[in-house]
Amino acid sequence: MMNEELLKTCADQNNYTIYTAFCKAQRILMRSYTPVCSISGGSDSDIVLDMIHKVDEDGKVKYFWIDTGLEYQATKEHLDCLEQKYGIEIIRLKPDKPIPTCVREYGVPFLSKYVSEQMMRLQAHGFQWEDEPLEELLKKYPRCKTALQWWCGERYSDKDGIQKISRFSIYRNRFLKEFIMANPPDFPISNKCCEYSKKKPAKRIIKELDADLDITGIRQSEGGIRSAAYKTCFSECKSKGCNTFRPIFWYTDGDKRDYEEMFGVTHSRCYTEYGLRRTGCVGCPFSKHINEELAIIEEHEPMLYKAAVNIFGKSYEYTAKYRAFVKEMKAKEKEEKKRDRLLSLSGTSACDTGGDSNTRSAVRSAVSADENAPEIGKGA
Length: 380
Fold this sequence. Notes:
alpha/beta, two-stranded antiparallel ribbon
């Protein structure tokens, strides 16, 4: 039976999310014989570890951490502290291929995992970044349908023909298509570093330990493709294999703070001393706050900063160029709207007076882009 004092603490704080998460965790662990829990050394992972350790009365959960080849020294130190605090062993895993090797062999990550994957596919088929209808491009590159649909923002099927798409479209990143057409990448882009340095080693240890439950720290509120892929905290494996449990899936940032205060959870120096918002692969180009992170890394772990710039430098430069392009296009858009308002007073429009056709085309791009542009410091 779960410690009554534990549940009373949650009830006294009127946090139903944490209370029910403990109950679910205990119930799910009771049905598992060989559970494993991945540890990252980040703040979400710290809470998952604390929660699972509290309900793991039989001590059957095995914990593991993957060294991607680009990790903070503060994270490694934190793992030692966690082992001492909870009296556990955290298995250190080597990646199938470390990040530097992946980048050298496949290419650098750019903007997001999904964008990198689609650009990688297009590059593999010799795509020339043409702005042509989807039907024409499918004739030229018949084996690259998914990536071409992303590039065109359209989906094609024999039954329904051409249909617009929004969620898995290049237009989710504003002006990205216009930028790539104007500045085609002269280096390979890839998302393979995540696959070989994280996903494959995790699958490997699950198989080696014959695990029937994989516990991870994904939260719905963190957003992104990873959290959007799930609708609930538990995923049952359809065939004989390993189920997945996300114990803090429903936690908001407020719930995290409540849990830290209720149970005295402290985090690594990456948070308490460096001031990072997130940990993980050092200097990952997917970060929305990469400028801020690079400055922090350079100050606190300068050797890692040099390594990150050496590995991801082309991506940082290309991303910075993209952000500058977005800023410029937004300024043009603002000017055209202003001119249209003025001309509308006299009954004319920019279209009537030969307004910038490139700008008008770009304005049709969708959604928003992060203004945070990475910059590489001097001497890098």
